[in-house]
Amino acid sequence: MLRQIYLSPIGIVISWFLNLFSFFHKPFMVYGFFNTVDGKFYKHTRIGSNVKLVDKNKIDIKNNVWVGYHCHLDGIGKITINEGVNIASHSCIYTHSSQNSVRLLGKSFIEIPAEKRIGYVIEPVTIGEYTFIGTSCIILPGTSIGKGCIVGAGSVVKGSFPDYSILVGNPAKIVGDTRKVDKELFDSGIDFKNYYRTYTPNEFSA
Fold first, then answer.
1. 81-90, 173-182, 197-206: lowest mean pLDDT where?
2. Nearest one of 130, 139, 99 to 194, comparing CA atoms
3. What is the pLDDT of residues 17-59, one digit of tens each?
4. 93 Cβ contact partners less than 8 Å away, ≥ 6 residues apart
5. Nearest-angstrom CA–CA distance, 123 and 138
6. Are 70 and 52 in contact (CB under 8 A)?
7. CB 77, CB 57: distance < 8 Å
8. How sure is the predictor about 99, in pLDDT bands with cuts at 50, 70 and 90?
9. Distance between CA atoms of 205 and 176, rounded to whole angstroms?
10. Domains within the chain, CATH numbers bracketed
11. SS3 (DSSP) at 64
12. What's the whole-number average pLDDT of the chain?
């Protein structure tokens, strides 16, 4: 029925309306974020209008954070995203998993509260200051990523990774150190007056 209406002469009007509707409902960046964990408003944090925040009251996002379009942040087990973190579009952060309990509990799965389900995983995720998460990454429960890291596009990350790590792959592994990248930038003459952390010039001269 709907298909017949759309294919009739009135279909042009319907198409025009739908295109107009989609124009006004395109994703956009929302400037400013009220952090319900610490009760502060962070003026310089930007989050895409279509980003899904699950259990927002357990998602601790600091200032100068960027979260791109179509991201999914699962706060059930708590997420901490520290200052300056950039998360590119289509990335997901998960803090829970039912991969084992769905089999162990079978039909009774839905009847049991999440925290009491056998085999149910609920673990926090932490991302350090000024770390960059590439597009289409998946961060799994219990992961901790240090500050100043780079996570390559499409990586699946599980575990604990130190500051300045460059992570790539599925599963993600350390393939480099961002301090070496920064040394090359420093040597090329880039002004480091706004660098994200305190440093001394001789740090990059070795």
1. 197-206
2. 130
3. 777 777 777 888 999 999 999 999 999 999 999 999 999 999 9
4. 71, 72, 73, 74, 79, 87, 125, 139
5. 15
6. no
7. no
8. very high
9. 19
10. 27-204 (2.160.10.10)
11. coil
12. 92
**pLDDT at 1 (0 to 100):** 63
Q: How many residues does the chain have?
A: 206
Contacts of 77 (CB under 8 A, 6+ apart): 58, 95, 96, 122, 123, 124, 125, 141
- Structure tokens that stand for 39 in this block: 């009760």
- Nearest-5° Cα angle at 99, 96 to 104: 115
- Quick check: 101 pLDDT over 90? yes
The first and second tokens of residue 133, run together, are 């998460």
Structure tokens at 43: 């003026």
Whole-structure pTM value:
0.88
From its phi and psi, is residue 202 left (phi > 0), alpha (psi between -120 and 50) or beta? alpha
Q: List the structure tokens of 10.
A: 């009135």
Find the farthest-apart pair of alpha carbons in the chain and give their distance in angstroms, rounded.
Answer: 73
